[in-house]
Amino acid sequence: MSPANRKSNMRFLVFAAVWIASTVVFQAHAQTNDIETVIDEQTERVTRLAIDLTESDVDLIDLREQLATDRARTSSLEDRLYDREAALRADLDRLGDPIDGEAPSVTERRDALNDDLTRMEQASAQLQVNQQEITRLLTEIAQARRSAFYNQLLNRRPAVFMEGELSKALSAFQTGANEAKRRSTAWFSAQSEAGTLARTLGLIAAAFIFALLMNLPVRSWANRRISQTVEAMEPMPSRRILVAALRTLVRAAPAIVGGLVFYQALILLGVIDQDSGPFARAIWSGFIWIMLVDGAASAVLTTRSPKWRVISVGSKTARRMRFVLVSAAIVVAADRILREGALLFGGATGISSLEQTIVAVLLALLLMLACSPRVWRPEEAAEGEPETMPSRKGGWIRTLLSLLGGASIIAALIGYAPLAHFAMTRIWLGAGVVGAAFAVRALLHEGIRLLDRRFASKHEGEGERLVSFWIGAFLDIVVFALALPPLFLLFGSDWTDVRATAIDALVGFQIGSVRISILELLFAVGVFAAVLAATRFIQRSVEKNVFPRTRMDIGVQNSLKTLIGYIGLVVAFMTGVGMLGFDLSNLAIIAGALSVGIGFGLQSIVNNFVSGLILLFERPIKVGDWVVTASGEGIVKRISVRSTEVETFDRASIIIPNSELISGTVTNWTHKNKLARITVAVGVSYNEDPDRIIDILRTVAKEADLILAHPEPMVLFVGFGDSSLDFEIRAFLSDVHRTLLARTQVRVAIFKAFKEAGVEIPFPQRDLHVRSSAISFGPPVASNGEPD
How far apart are CA 394 and CA 65, in angstroms? Predict the structure, then answer.
C-alpha cells in the first residue's frame, strides 16, 4: 500500500471515529433534553394545579385525577432517569480518567457526558421535589373532600314536622308531577303527529305482556320444576349451597329477562331518551336488585322445603327474615328511583329532606325488626326442618344494630336526615355486598370440593387435597379483594379514589425505602407456581413414560425423581425472587448470615440435610431396601432431605435422621441384589448314619421350590450336640423377602422326609437321681400319733 493510500485510510478512520462519537454525544444530548423538557412541563403543571387548588370553585375530583396522572408519570420518569444515569456512568467508566496526550474528541466527549450526568442529577432532584409536591396536594385534596363530606352529613336541616317543611315538600312534589305530566303529554302529542302512536303503544303493550308472562307463569313453572327435582335428592350440606344458587337463578332469571325485553323496547321506541335515561336506569337496576334479593332470600330461607334451608333457623324466623330482606331491597331501590326522578322532573331540593327522612326511618325499623329477639327466638323444629339457631348467637351484634337503628330514627326526626340516611342505606347495601361475597365464596368452595372428590376417587393421596386448599385460599383472597371496591364506594369514596388506590396497590406503593407491587407479587407467585407445576408434570411424565422403558431399579428412579423435584424447587424459587426485583447477588449476604446461625444452632439440621443429599446421590440405601439399623429393621419407604422413613414388618414407621444412616452401621439386605442365603439347622439321633442323613437333606434342598439350583445348596455336618448329631442346609434364594417362607418350606420337607425314612429327631433328655436322707425334721412320733 502506498503512503498516500495509507494516509488517506488514516484520515477516513479518524473521521469515522469523530463522526461516531459526535453521533453518540448528540443522541445522549437529545435524550437528556427530552427528559428535562418532560420534567419542566410537569413542574409547570404541578405549580398551576397548586394555584388552582386555592380557588373556591375548583373541581377537586378533576384536580385529583390530573395529579394522580402526574404521579403515575413520575414513576416512569424515575425509571428513565435511572437508566439514563446508569448509561452515562457506564460511558464515563469506559472512557476512564483523563490522561496526558489523549485525543481532543475523547476529552470533548467526556466533558459532554459529565455535563449530561450533572443535568440528569439536577433533573432527578427536581423530579423528587415534584413528587413531594404532588403528594402534598393530594393530601390537601383528600382532607378538603373529607371535610366537605363530613359537613354534608353533619349539617342539620329543619325537621320535617316543623311548620312549612311539609308544605314545601308537597309543593316540590307537585312541581315534579306537573313536569312528568307535561313530558308525557308532549310525547303522546309527538307520536300522534307522527302517526305512530297506535303502533308504539301496541309494541309497548306486547313487551309488557311478555314481561308479565316471564314474571308470573314462567317463573312459577320454573320454581315448581326445580322444587320437584330437588325434593327427590338427599339434602347433604354441600348440595344445599348449590341448590340455593340454582333456585336463586331460576327465581330471578325469568323476571330479569322479561324486564330486560321491556326496558330495551322502551329504548328502541324512543320512550326513554337521553334526559330520562338515568331515571329509567334507576328503575331497571332497582328491579334487578329486588329480584336478586327476593331470589336469594327465597332460596336460602326457603319455607316450602325446610330440609334445603341453608341457614339453621325455624320457619317463622325464615318467613320474617325473608320479609325484612325483600322490604329493605324495595326501600333501597325506591330511594334511588325517587332521587333520580326528583333530578329529572324538578323539586329535588324541596323533597330531599323528606325523602331521606322516610327512607332512613323505614330502613331503621326494618333493621330493628331483623335484630328483634322475637325473630331469633328458638322454635321447635318440625319434621324435616333443621335445628334452630341458639337465641344468644350474635346477640351483642343484634343489640348494637338495634341501638343504631333507634339512634338513626331519632337523628332523622330532629334534622340529621342525611346522616341517618347515609348510615342506614350503607348498612343494608354493605350487608348485600358482604352477603354476595360470601355466596360467591361458598359456591367456589363447593365447586372445588366437588372437583376434589372426583379427582380423589381416581388418584389417592393428600397432595391433591393440599392443592385444593391453596386454591381455595387464593380464591378467598380474590373474593375479598373484589368486595373491597364496592364497600369503599358505599362508604363515601369516589370512583377515582378507588381506582387510584387499586392502581397504586397493583402497580406499586412505597413503604419507606421499599416499593411493594401486588401485581408483581402475584406475577412472581404465579411464575413460582407455574415452574413448580411444570416440575411436577416432568416428574410424572418421567415416572410414567421414561422409567418403565429403562432397566433402572426403583431406588434409582426414586432418587432421580426427587432430584428433579429439588432442581425444580430451586429454579422456581430463584425465578420468583428474580421476578420480584431482588438482586440475587444479595443472597450471598443471607448465606453469610445463615452460616453464622448454622454454626450456633443449626448444625443438626444441616448435617441431616447434607446426609440426605449423600443418600440420594451415593445411594447406599434406596427406597424398597430391607435395612437393619440401630433404630430398627424394616423396608425403606421414603428418603427426604432431613430424615428417612422405614416401615417395620409390624407396619410401624421409624423416622431415622439421615445423619444416623451415614455415620452409623447399616445392614442392607438388598443393596446390590435380592439374592440371599438361608441356613436351616436340624439334629438327628446318634444312632443314625451321617451319610444317609446328608443324602436325605440334599434331596430335600434340591426339591424345594424356592431354593436356587445355582449356586448349589450345601449340606454340612456341623457338630456333635449334647443329644444329637447336628446338620445344616445352606441354600440360596432369588428374593431375600421370601426367607421365612423358604425356611418354613424346607423344615416341613425335612420333617416329612425324616418321618418316611424313620429318622429319629431327638430331644434333650435328663436323668433325675433322688437320694434318701436320714435327716430328721422333728421329734419322734409314737404309733398312736402322739409325740414320744
Answer: 43
Beta bridge partners of residue 781, listed in sequence order = 787
CB crowding 151-164: b at 16 or more within 10 Å, else e:
eeeeeebeebeeee
Q: Is the peptide bond before 711 cis (omega within 30 degrees of 0)?
A: yes
CA gap 700, 707 in Å, rounded: 10
Q: Take residue 226 and report the three cell numbers written for it.
A: 326445580
Q: What is the mean pLDDT of the chain?
A: 79
Instruction: Name which of 619, 726, 607, 620 is nearest 666 in CA terms.
Output: 620
The C-alpha cell at 165 is: 317543611
Give the Cα separation of 475 and 445 in Å (integer).
8
Q: Is residue 69 within 8 Å of 51, Cβ to Cβ?
A: no
Q: Nearest 5°: CA angle at 39, between 36 and 44?
A: 125
What is the tens place of the pLDDT at every residue in 461-478? 444 455 667 777 878 888
> With 0-12 CB in 10 A as exposed, 13-18 as middle and 19+ as buried, what is 254?
buried
- Per-residue pLDDT of 728-784, as tens digits, reads 999 999 888 888 899 999 999 999 999 998 888 887 666 666 765 555 445 555 545
Pick 464 or 400 by higher pLDDT: 400
Task: List C-alpha distances in Å: 449 to 239, 444, 533, 657.
Answer: 11, 9, 20, 37
Classify 632 in phi/psi space as left (phi over 0), alpha (psi -120 to 50) or beta: left
Report how far residue 366's alpha carbon sits from residue 409's, in angstroms, rounded to the nearest whole number: 11
